Amino acid sequence: MIRLSGQLLCGSAEEAAIVARHLPDHIRLTRAEPGCLSFDVVQTADPLVWQVDETFTDQAAFAVHQARTGTSDWARTTADIPRRYNMITD
């Protein structure tokens, strides 16, 4: 199992608005991927920080997710927003 936990760290209200606008489609597409067990991205008490928690069945499923998202609208529109993640493999 692959688990990833961390944050998207927006630098402005405009960046947070970009996340909010593109996130529903990103969540829908990710949750539909084979091997995705859970995928949650929620805004924290700090409106510029989003908590990300993902779980995939294995490294292969996570690799497919990374490949899809790497060329997605989500990747293009949020490319400049820093991410801070920790990955745990079981």
Structural summary, described in words:
The chain is of the alpha+beta class and 90 residues long. It has one domain: Alpha-Beta Plaits. It is built from three helices and four strands. A hairpin with a 5-residue loop joins strand 2 and strand 3. The longest helix has 19 residues. The mean pLDDT is 96.
CATH architecture, please? 2-Layer Sandwich
Q: How many distinct domains?
A: 1
- Tell me the strand order in the biggest sheet: 2-3-1-4
Which radius of gyration do the C-alpha atoms yield? 13 Å
CATH fold-level label = Alpha-Beta Plaits
From the N-terminal CA to the C-terminal CA, the straight-line distance is 5 Å
| Text of the CATH class | Alpha Beta
Q: What's the helical proportion of residues?
A: 40-55%
Shape: globular
- Extended strand count: 4
The largest sheet, given as strand count, sense and whether it forms a barrel, is: 4 strands, antiparallel
Which short descriptors sum up this protein?
single chain; 90 residues; alpha+beta; Alpha-Beta Plaits; 34% strand; globular
Can you give me a brief rundown of this structure?
The protein has helices spanning 13-31, 59-70, 73-78; strands at residues 2-9, 36-43, 49-56, 83-89. With 90 residues, it is α+β, with helices and mostly antiparallel strands.
